[in-house]
Design brief:
alpha/beta, 13 strands, 5-stranded mixed β-sheet, 8 helices
């Protein structure tokens, strides 16, 4: 993990914010697509990418990024270097996942979840949508359906000036579907129980991939983890 330059706000010192140095970020009305994949799932990629080309409006897509283990990068390079690469309706890139976290060779589920958060360090838009190789679009999708613009009324003036102009759509599931996620997250972040979410098992919560994440929120979570545990250089993930 890259060492983040974080600063603690006076009102919430326990949740430091990253000091942004990149002034070239796109409008928060654009979306980056991140597909987290590895060699065993490459056979699904043609369908996933073809469905995106057919159904996802490209005009507000900043980039489609394939986040893959470094030893698998060469298998996907033809997507970018041959003459067909120019036919993609959006910029495409392949990023070795050890650029965001040095790790031992593993395909563990835990590592995949960590990478989906850590990739915020290299994202250029405020929002990014995480996809797995088996996520297939079935009907036309516009970014306006995924990112809802906040109403430009007097309510907006009451919001913090740094609040983003958009809200991201997410799919809801009952808390009981992944009941262990929430208390374990609170333990890692060292916050009071039932802070992330109520202990009501029937409460609707953020579901699984596909998901749209906020770069600002993800970086703030990483700043807190860095504050609690220090810089994370290398991780060995044993659990499957």
């Amino acid at each position: 993990m890259q060492a983040l330059n974080c600063t603690a706000p006076v009102d919430q010192p326990q949740w430091p914010r990253v000091v942004q140095s990149d002034t070239s970020s796109r409008s928060d009305g654009h979306l980056t697509i991140v597909i987290v994949t590895a060699r065993p799932a490459f056979k699904r990629l043609p369908l996933t990418l073809a469905a995106l080309v057919c159904h996802l409006d490209h005009r507000q897509i900043s980039e489609v990024m394939l986040l893959v283990p470094p030893q698998d990068v060469y298998l996907l390079e033809p997507f970018l270097i041959d003459e067909e690469a120019n036919h993609w309706p959006w910029p495409m890139s392949i990023m070795p996942d050890d650029r965001v976290l040095k790790h031992t060779h593993t395909h563990s589920y835990r590592l995949q979840m960590m990478l989906k958060l850590l990739v915020a360090q290299v994202i250029k838009t405020e929002y990014y949508m995480i996809l797995d190789s088996d996520c297939v679009a079935l009907w036309p999708i516009h970014v306006e359906q995924l990112l809802w613009r906040r109403p430009t009324t007097s309510t907006k003036s009451k919001l913090n000036h740094s609040s983003p102009s958009f809200l991201a759509l997410y799919q809801a599931e009952e808390k009981s579907d992944h009941d262990e996620w929430w208390p374990e997250s609170e333990q890692v972040l060292k916050i009071e129980p039932n802070t992330c979410i109520s202990d009501d098992p029937s409460l609707k919560t953020i579901g699984v991939t596909p998901a749209i994440l906020s770069k600002s929120i993800a970086l703030r979570a990483l700043c807190r983890l860095q504050m609690l545990y220090g810089k994370l250089n290398t991780v060995v993930v044993i659990a499957k």
